[in-house]
Automatic annotation (TrEMBL):
Coiled coil: none
Protein task: Accessory subunit that is involved in the functional assembly of the mitochondrial respiratory chain complex I. Complex I has an NADH dehydrogenase activity with ubiquinone as an immediate electron acceptor and mediates the transfer of electrons from NADH to the respiratory chain.
Top-level taxon: Eukaryota
Gene: Ndufb10
This protein's name: NADH dehydrogenase [ubiquinone] 1 beta subcomplex subunit 10
Keywords: Electron transport, Membrane, Mitochondrion, Mitochondrion inner membrane, Respiratory chain, Transport
Organism in which the protein naturally occurs: Himantopus himantopus (Black-winged stilt)
Length: 175
């Protein structure tokens, strides 16, 4: 390979970048404004935010662990106490959602057991089947035949009618 003797064509870059020299003695207004902004606006806001974060870190709040206080049942509300009616309805809806999730969890456990056991599912998953039967019967007794638009009042009336039927059946059986 022939040696290239033309060093001017391939100049070596300088080893250090030269520092620009200030040509004036007037301070840069941008750096002055940045400094004023940092001290006047940014520092107080940062201080307040860090203080709030420290306070929140002391008592953590997990929204998914929210615990509602139990409110009186609809049967315990006074006549015309609409706030009590509203709270009882909200409590009933929460209870219904919890009961739906319980049924779903038991159903998923039974499905997992059936998948795991295969052909032996009838003897090895008997406890889960019995538990699912009990849970669905309890759910059906309480919320069955209410439909999508069921509410606390209709559920209470359903339970009242069921109790009256049970008392009639017990009275007829004892005679």
């Amino acid at each position: 390979m022939p040696e290239d003797s033309d060093w001017e064509a391939y100049k070596v870059p300088p080893t250090r970048t030269p520092v620009s020299e200030r040509t004036t003695s007037v301070p840069n207004p941008v750096t002055f404004l940045q400094t004023v902004f940092n001290y006047v606006v940014d520092a107080p806001v940062t201080f307040v935010r860090e203080w709030i974060e420290r306070q929140q870190a002391k008592n953590k709040y997990y929204y998914y662990h929210q615990k509602f206080r139990r409110v009186p049942d609809l049967s315990e509300c006074l006549e015309g106490d609409y706030l009590c009616y509203f709270e009882a309805e909200a409590q009933w809806r929460r209870d219904r959602m919890v009961d739906q999730e319980i049924v779903e969890i038991v159903r998923e456990r039974l499905g997992a057991c059936k998948q795991r056991e295969g052909p032996n599912q009838f003897q090895n998953c008997a406890k889960e089947m019995e538990l699912l039967a009990q849970v669905t019967k309890a759910y059906q007794d309480k919320y069955g035949d209410l439909g999508v638009h069921g509410n606390a009042r209709t559920c209470l009336m359903k339970q009242k009618h069921r109790m009256m039927e049970e008392r009639k059946a017990q009275a007829n059986a004892s005679q």
